[in-house]
Design goal:
It is found in: Cytoplasm. The chain is built from 15 helices and 16 strands. The chain is an alpha+beta fold. Bound molecules: 4-amino-1,4-dioxobutan-2-aminium adenosine-5'-monophosphate and magnesium ion.
Length: 477
């Protein structure tokens, strides 16, 4: 007999004479009530065992974590909170789980402990919910762009380019480890290596994406990106997924409109398709908030926060205005910022971004027209000669969720900028071809997928929204 998903059984419109379900035991109470979960939904189905007619040997093997198959009838449940349950007539243990050793016992585990067990944490309610929401969000990303006629482009993972010019790349080499330099003077001879040149894992698919936008009009990438920045924070991963749309003939304002519309669409999609999981995560968050002092508790619940983003336009503010606000803020004057903001041109730290979003504007903010000096080489220089058409979208609780810009479409200006920054023109000859042949205004942005999942699930550490987090000193799996 084919098994039916627990989700479909719970959503059944009638009782059913014979059904089969397969899944993992969450709990087993009074030798009679199994809470069975198969991952299709946050909700367990209650399976009522006829313990008088079941061998003791079998009952003993119904332990948390065991894989079982139950056959029986789907009947109305007398228990609270569930419409149906399975009255079990046949029970088979598919895979035992030693109750003494299984780490995911039904009790509250710390997130740190769960991170060390990333291969098993997905068997908990919270991580099951997070990973389902993540999956739905990635479908929503494709759904949004495909509906709008964007072409999905797979940009290279191994590349010779440093798209951000920030030098935070993981080098790729086929040379045996014992051939690596033993001290700093000794250099690897990359000419002898697989590609005959330095290569690295991509930090962004943008540059390749731009070449496709200049032919296909509207494109997007959605893939893994890698950064060797040694930022051990709750917002940084060494391996994360990024969504990067790029659109020919869009200026910075059109870019902002696209980003806002896109973010709203995917959040709405999650609200419409992940109701049970988001409700569960909201409850989890409320529990967590209770342990905080009143003043530090969030004013909004998770669902209120998500709906707030749907209903309110993001505040668009230039870098210069933001700096004025920060300089004037009493927090800055009283030096409560770790890095005080004293002059125009300083890069904003996450404490400043969060001040603007959480304390000053109290809504998502798009900062634009940043000083050229603190942004990447490819951004369009403004007429003032000192700012570029960059934008960062800042979210409450997250900080920067999107970074993007209108691109420098003028060949000469771009080359001059690259020269000034010491970026090798010869290596980027193919990128410069977009400006040599049929150049045009174009814009795009990158959204860090895990930061989006953080926001939607209400989690606070980025390690908890990706299946197997990669961070400095951590690649257990
Ligand atoms: O601001 P970033 O570095 O921009 C780019 O890479 C551009 N090439 C994007 C573009 O215009 N096509 O990164 C974009 C976003 C950030 O706003 C952030 O959300 C995320 O990627 N991000 C990270 N997420 C997790 N861990 C990290 N180490 C991240 N670095 C950036
Ligand atoms: Mg950025």
């Amino acid at each position: 007999m084919r098994h039916t998903k627990v989700k479909d059984l719970l959503n059944s419109t009638t009782t059913l004479e014979e059904v089969n379900a397969k899944g993992w035991v969450r709990t087993f109470r009074n030798n009679q009530f199994i809470a069975l979960n198969d991952g299709s939904t946050i909700n367990n189905i209650q399976c009522v065992v006829d313990f008088e007619n079941t061998a003791d040997e079998t009952l003993k093997r119904i332990t948390t974590g065991a894989a079982i198959s139950v056959t029986g009838s789907l009947v109305e449940s007398k228990g609270a909170g569930q419409k149906y349950e399975i009255k079990v007539s046949e029970l088979e243990i598919l895979g035992d789980s030693d109750a003494e050793k299984f780490p995911m016992q039904p009790k509250k585990h710390s997130l740190e402990f769960l991170r060390e067990n990333a291969h098993l944490r997905v068997r908990t309610n919270a991580f099951g919910a997070i990973m389902r929401v993540r999956s739905v969000l990635s479908f929503a990303v494709h759904s949004y762009f495909q509906q709008k006629g964007f072409v999905y482009v797979n940009t290279p993972i191994i590349t010779g380019a440093d798209a951000e010019g920030a030098g935070e790349m993981f080098q790729v080499t086929s040379l045996p480890l014992d051939n690596l330099p033993k001290n700093e003077e000794e250099n690897i001879d990359y000419k002898k290596d697989f590609f005959g040149k330095h290569t690295n894992l991509t930090v962004s698919g943008q540059l390749e994406g731009e070449t496709f936008a200049m032919a296909l009009g509207q494109i997007y990438t959605f893939g893994p990106t890698f950064r060797a920045e040694n930022s051990n924070t709750s917002r940084h991963l060494a391996e994360f997924w990024m969504i990067e749309p790029e659109v020919a003939f869009n200026d910075l304002n059109a870019n902002m409109d696209l980003a806002e519309d896109f973010i709203r669409y995917v959040i709405k999609y999650a609200l419409d398709h992940c109701g049970d999981d988001l409700k569960f995560l909201e409850g989890r968050l409320l529990e967590e908030e209770k342990s905080k002092p009143q003043t530090e508790r969030s004013e909004m619940t998770l669902l209120e926060k998500l709906n707030f983003v749907l209903e309110n336009n993001f505040k668009r503010v230039s870098y210069t205005e933001a700096i004025d606000i920060l300089r004037d803020s009493t927090t800055n004057k009283k030096k409560k910022f770790q890095y005080s903001i004293d002059e125009w041109g300083a890069d904003l730290q996450s404490e400043h971004e969060r001040y603007l979003v959480e304390k000053h504007f109290k809504c998502p903010v798009i900062l634009f027209d940043y000083p050229a000096k603190i942004k990447a080489f490819y951004m369009r220089l403004n007429e003032d000669g000192k700012t570029v058409r960059a934008m960062d979208i800042l979210f409450p609780g997250i900080g920067e969720i999107v970074g993007g810009s209108q691109r420098e479409e003028r060949f000469d200006v771009l080359v001059e900028k690259m020269k000034a920054l010491g970026i090798n023109e010869e290596e980027l000859w193919w990128y410069l071809d977009t400006r040599r042949f049929g150049s045009a205004v174009h814009s795009g942005f990158g959204l860090g997928f895990e930061r989006l999942v953080l926001f939607v699930t209400g989690m606070t550490n980025i390690r908890d929204v990706i299946p197997f987090p990669r961070t400095p000193m951590n690649a257990e799996f």
